[in-house]
Amino acid sequence: MLPAEAGPQPTALRRFAGGLVADLAIAVLLALGGLAGVAMLGSAGPARAARWLGVVALAVAAAATAARFPRAADQDDPRESVYRSAAAGRRLWIVNGFGGLGRFPGLRTAAVGVAVLLGAGRYLATDDRAGFVLVTIAAAGLVLTIAAEPFVVRLLRLPAPYAVRLPGLPVLPARIGYAWLPAHLGQVATIAVGATAVAGAPGWVPLALAVLGAVPSAAVILKVRSRRQVAARIRTRLPGAMAGYAPEFVLYTARPDDASYQLTMWLPYLRRAGRPFVIVTRDELPSEAIAALTDLPVVCCRAVADLDLIMTESLRAAFYVNASSGNGALIRYHQLTHVYLGHGDSDKPPSYNPTHAMYDRIFTAGPAANRRYGEHGVLIDPAKFRIVGRPQVEVIRPADPDRLAARVAGARPVILYAPTWKGHVSETALSSLDRAEAIVAALLDRDAEVIFRPHPFSYDDPGETEIIERVKQRLAADRQSSSRQHCYGPAAETDLDAFGCMNAADVLISDVSSVVSDFLQSGKPYAMVAPPELASDRFVVDYPVARAGYLIDHELTTLEAVLDDLLVITGDRLATGRTRVRADYLGDFAVGGYAEHFTAAVREACDTPAPRIAEVAESDDGSTAVSRDTVRRNLDSLARAMSTGVAAVVALAAGVDHAVLLGAVAATIAALVAVLTPLTRRVAADPPPLDGARMIMALAAAAAAASGAPPHWLGPVLLPMIIGIAAETTIRSGWSYPGVIATGLAGLEVPASSRRPWLLPVTAAVTSWLAWPAMIIGATWPMLVIAALILAVLIMVAVATARARTRLAAALSAERAVPAVLAEFAPQFCVYFGSGIGAAYQVGMWLEYFRRLDRRFVIITRALPMQAEIVRLTRGTGIPVLFRPTLRSLEEVVVPSMRLAYYVNNAVRNTHLIERRELIHVWLNHGDSEKPACYNPVHAIYDKIFTAGQAGIDRYARHGVTIPAAKFVIVGRPQTETIIPASAPIGSVQRPTVLYAPTWQGPYADSRVYSLPVGLQLVDALLERGARVIFRAHPFNYRFAADRRMITEIGARLAADRARTGTDHLWGEQAENRLSVEDCFNASDAMICDVSAVISDYLAAAKPFAVVAVGRTEAELIAEAPAAAAGYPVAEDLSDLPEVLGRLLGTDPKAAERDRMRRYYLGELPNDRAAEGFLRASAGLLETTGPGDTPV
């Protein structure tokens, strides 16, 4: 485990305090600007200086807000990072991203309100009605522009197909380099509108300035729209372009960031294979980065379904350069040969990652790589390995005799120091960079010339970057003060590649890194720095490449002695051992033609015939296109922000002009939207806060009070509302910080977020609105009530701020306590749910059997909606449910007591936990069927695969998926224990009940095997035979509008028949929620379905069933789904339905075949003992010590 970091708590709390102070300071400036405008309403002469003070306050506030705009996108946000700034932005030190676009909308909108208050007051003081109207329109335009920014951001983030250098494709316009400009120019426009209006410029001037302020946003929208139109044409033509180019393989990366080096290291050798190929990425940032480095075709497939567009008949193989969790999206295409390359070979955990088991072939450099998996408990079929050497090292030269002679003559040694990076998790925290300064100092003391080449990923960490910069400065200073020619910075990291650095060096100092394995090719000596608290003998066992190197402990106590050995010119005592280790790690190949072994293997992979059955497996992540509901919610949110903002501006203008009735109407409209939005929460999970509109509402009420009849004191009293509303942003951040989201674990309690998050915004909006009726009444007491309410709002803000900070501190404290609390709870296994859909039924079907194991366990989720769903599922059981959003946070849940991890679906993020080799990873699935999801090659990554019967094992082999037999365990199907077998032949049932249970359509068009489109015809045929129908739709089909309509139509038909005949049909809520699947089985006498898990489960009922052959002939259905042979296939066009129903509900000639098929699919245990196999197998695994000690 990584030690608990002391940094996050004070950092987050400092960010909370800093954000609060900045928001309040800017709000105070805006309130002062508003005060200047309110105090001088109706005055022309003496008010001039005060108004200009207001403009100064406005300008400082707007500039301070702009100063808070980020100058670079978050490095973990590739969708923003991809928007690199053009020259103008770079001159302002803006690297990339959206700048202030969509950020600080409340303060920016309030600044517009102050500008119009100052300007409108000036125009009215000089009786310039036209100027007054025009500046109001200008303000409304600026408010609309700010309100539209979240929409613009969403537009910029939308996926756009990217493809270059394929025949027949249009050229995608360059991405805009000024995504940052709208917000910056909007701030300038706000200041300019206020200043020019106060200066008395004609009204068209501020209006023109407001229009200019909106131009960048309009330009962004038009540019993105134009680019997306071209992208749409690219998407349409992409299949044809791929077919025209006819690639034989793809080089694939699913990493969202720029890791181009992982691709470029393979390009020269893949080219040598002489086969056309395409580089495929899953994000635009890496696509554009690699496209700038090569002349090869590059395609970005952002959506999983977009991968369908690149599948051509010529495509035979896919090569992978990393173990990204997104690789499974392409692995599902069984017609390809999937080859893992990696991007370096070392003894680090990434080089024996269990996820490599999903590939058809694993290209390794030497025998050491093959052994490495088994030595760490990773079981992979040996036939998948192919030793091909490490082609990149062909350029590494052995020590030059002339160079050795020069050293003997006194030349300085050249030492390459190449530390690795710290990795994502503790297992890969093997870097020596924290010792870099001491190591480099020791080398300088030896009069050495240093080549310093840190890992490029180290620059992603600020702390490591600081160390790197200090080392560079030390080397630069030494270079100036001596004649030593050190190499560092771009000279070592860009001008030279890693192999160039190796050739320039006499010796190497590194740590656990592929640099060491590659350096073996040179035959030169090297030293390795051990990780902290790891003894030398253990270090050699864990990292065998150290056998041929000199070992430096992490505390550097052995550094001087090692340098004595390392820098010896003759008599290197480890030279002979390095020769043996070199053959073990890099292959026992001759230097001449070394890389040809790799290129031959590439050609062989491309020439491998596609399997006979090539279907596409599916993912359980529910990755589909942006839904209409999402679009509707976004547009609804946009409409609310715009309408409220404009109404508030109108109320402000009316208040300045003392048009109380008009102002009251506009304020009422703004208040209604501002109140109803947080109360109804219809817009989205996080409705727009409308802070800016509510601040302008306070300004409007203040202006109306100041411009009307005495007393005027209410106007200034209303202005502190701006400060209170400004604090709400920070308060929301404190309430929304997730921290630890857990149930059932004492010690991880975090104070709940506010139960009434609407209270502050609603109270503020209502208070501002009530000022209008108070002014209409004209009495003093209503104004005193308003003043009391304002005080109450400010007190509420102070209390809420304190509570939000307290909650934030508690959340941070609980986050640090997770390892200790879990260790004390001592769970023996976990149930991991990495998907974003389906938790209730996928976990729910196994929950009872997890509980019967009578061991402590925890359920881990990766999506908040699924966390809530599982919490509801487990309510009252005491089962802990823990939300872990990030890879690093997931690491903390693996405590010493934990032995097993169960997986119930094909979620992409399953790979995040699979890498933890302390656990035995068990694949359960959530059903057993013949769909591609049940023979997905990704299942090879698990240590054990629990199958119901032999059919589950044979299914993989039948579809060409190779998994070692030792991974399979037949455990039966526990869920069938509640299924009651038929007590009499179907022919003896007077009025049979037929269950119709279609599966869902699946996320991909070419894997749809559902019968719902013909469901109404099936139901009609059953009704004509007088059958009672139970219609149970798959829950996932409710995600699709067309399927919902079909489900509704079937329900209406059953309702009509029930009304006409009195038959008690079941559907909807009754069949899908009140009854379980097993209840439906027991209530039925026969079933009609398609290819899904209900077939194998229904075998336990010993009742007849029919299967609709969707997208295939009946013969193909039986070949692909053997269980269908025990049922009655139905043609997709239902042409044989009458005959099938006669057998299904009458003669039933396949009763004996069903019994044999039941044992094949469900095992030998009878229904009432169906859970025994799972419980027995799980108990056995719980007694083991890890993946390498698992029973067969």
Tell me briefly what this model is.
With 1192 residues, the chain is an alpha/beta fold. 49% of the residues lie in helices and 9% in strands. It folds into 6 domains: 25-245, no CATH class; 248-296 and 301-390, 3-Deoxy-D-manno-octulosonic-acid transferase, N-terminal domain (Rossmann fold), CATH 3.40.50; 393-586, Glycogen Phosphorylase B (Rossmann fold), CATH 3.40.50; 653-825, no CATH class; 826-972 and 1179-1189, Rossmann fold (3-Layer(aba) Sandwich); 983-1167, Glycogen Phosphorylase B (Rossmann fold).
Write up what this structure looks like.
This protein has 1192 residues and is an alpha/beta fold. It has six domains: 25-245, no CATH class; 248-296 and 301-390, 3-Layer(aba) Sandwich (Rossmann fold); 393-586, Glycogen Phosphorylase B (Rossmann fold); 653-825, no CATH class; 826-972 and 1179-1189, Glycogen Phosphorylase B (Rossmann fold, 3-Layer(aba) Sandwich); 983-1167, Rossmann fold. 49% of the residues lie in helices and 9% in strands. The chain has an eight-stranded mixed beta sheet, with helices on both faces. It has an eight-stranded mixed beta sheet with strand order 14-17-16-15-18-19-20-21. Helix 11 links the parallel strand 3 (277-281) and strand 4 (298-300). Helix 2 packs antiparallel against helix 7. The longest helix has 46 residues, at 780-825. It is globular, with a radius of gyration of 35 Å. Mean pLDDT is 90; it is low at 1-8 and 621-625. Keywords: Membrane, Transmembrane, Transmembrane helix. Pfam families: Glyphos_transf (PF04464). The chain crosses the membrane at residues 20-43, 49-69, 106-125, 131-156, 204-224, 637-654, 660-680, 692-709, 784-805, 825-847.
